[in-house]
Amino acid sequence: MNHHTLDQYLQQLDPIETVQKETLQNINEFGGNEFKVQTGENYPRMPEHLFFDKGPVYILQVSLPIS
Question: What is the pTM of this model?
Answer without folding.
Answer: 0.42
